[in-house]
Structure formats: C-alpha cells, structure tokens
UniProtKB/TrEMBL annotation:
Keyword Lyase in annotation: no
Keyword entries, A-Z: Membrane, Transmembrane, Transmembrane helix, Transport
UniProt source species: Streptomyces roseoverticillatus
Transmembrane segments: 24-44, 51-73, 79-96, 137-159, 179-204
Every ABC transmembrane type-1 domain range: 18-201
Recorded superkingdom: Bacteria
Subcellular location per the Swiss-Prot or TrEMBL entry: Cell membrane; Membrane
Protein name per the record: ABC transporter permease
Family assignment from sequence similarity: Belongs to the binding-protein-dependent transport system permease family.
CDD domains, per the entry: TM_PBP2
Length: 215
C-alpha cells in the first residue's frame, strides 16, 4: 500500500488525531502564555527574580520529555493530565524569557510620561508596558508552539492524544506493511500543523503590532 493510499484509507482517524494534537497544543499554549506572562510581570523589575524565573524554566526544559512524563504518570495517571502538565511546563521558558526581556526593554520615559498623566501602576502595565512588550512576547509564543508540536507527539507514551499515537504505532510495528506509512503520516501531520500555527501567529502579529514597532 502506498503512502497516499494509506492516508486515504485512514483519513478520518488522521483528521481526528490532528484535531486532538492541535487542540492539546493550543490549550496548553493558552495556559503557558498566561502563566508565563504573569511570571514575567512579577519578576521583570528585579534582576535576581527575573534571572531566577528564566533559569528555573530553562532547567525544566532540560528534563527529557519521556522522563518527565514517566515522573508525572504516577502522580496524574495516564492520558490528558500528564500531557497538559508536561506541555505547559515545557512552553514556559520562551514566554517567560521574552516577557522579561520585552518588559525591561520598554522606554522608561514612556512609563514616566504615563505616570505623569495620572495612570496607576496597573494601568501603566496594561496600557503601556505590555502592549510595547507584545512583539517579543509573541515571538516567545511562536517558539514555544513549535517546540510543543514535537513534544506533544511524545505524549503518546503516556496515552496522550494526538498524532504521536500514529508515530508510536508505526515505531512499535517496524517491519510490518504500514509501519513506515504510520510514522510518515504522523510526522507530516505535525509539520503541517506547525506551519499552520506559525502562519496564524504571523497574521496575529500583523493585526496587533503597529508597523513602526514591527519595523
């Protein structure tokens, strides 16, 4: 059976796996973005706190994904829970780092001007600092998403959802008729999803970042 025949015959399952994969990455990125930006906001004013946040999230990223899933399974069980936990933890570093860098890079004179016209600290953060730090934060989100697309495939080890199941089935049955087709279908599916997500981020950047800042 050729690859395209295999895809045609398994189209419904591949589409379901692709949807689950994209949904898991998207939802985990939403959580990672919220947590990462909050960490950045809480730590960027202090040199040691910001460095500690970046170092801690960087340390999490050095833990092999299979090892982390293996550690999480006894605590959370199989399935969605270890997948979500692992993906959120792995997605934090680029977001935290870029949030800290972006917020520290805001021109102090603009913050002082906002303070001079009576803006509260929260208003300055929401209306001046975060909008100006958004371009590097968005870059961090893009990088994190590309990482999680690949890491999410490993979550099949813990019975997680997505295209990793297709890859694992193929790897576990190497030598059988459709083993290569399974691995190839799962891998290409992840690549296509990664490209679609990145195109969406480019569009979001064009819609939310003024031309002067992009330039």
């Amino acid at each position: 059976m050729s690859f395209w025949e295999y895809v045609a015959g398994r189209r419904a399952q591949l589409l379901a796996d692709s949807y689950q994969h994209a949904s898991a990455v998207f939802q985990c990125m939403v959580v990672a973005t919220l947590v990462g930006v909050v960490i950045g906001v809480l730590t960027y004013r202090s040199e040691w706190a910001g460095n500690l946040a970046v170092t801690t999230t960087a340390t999490l990223l050095t833990v092999p994904s299979l090892a982390l899933l293996g550690l999480l399974v006894p605590l959370t069980g199989l399935g969605v829970a270890p997948t979500v936990t692992a993906l959120v933890l792995y997605g934090l570093l680029p977001i935290v780092r870029n949030a800290v860098v972006g917020l520290r890079g805001v021109d102090p004179s603009l913050v002082d001007a906002a303070k001079g016209i009576g803006m509260s600290r929260a208003a300055r953060l929401l209306r001046v600092e975060l909008p100006l730090a958004w371009p590097p934060i968005l870059t961090g989100i893009r990088v994190a998403t590309q990482m999680l697309m690949g890491i999410a495939a490993v979550a099949a080890y813990a019975s997680g959802p997505g295209l990793g199941n297709e890859i694992f089935r193929g790897v576990s049955s190497l030598g059988s008729a459709n083993a290569l087709n399974q691995v190839l279908a799962g891998t290409l599916g992840i690549i296509v999803l990664a490209l679609l997500f990145d195109a969406a981020y480019v569009l979001i950047g064009r819609l939310t970042i003024p031309g002067g800042i992009r330039g």
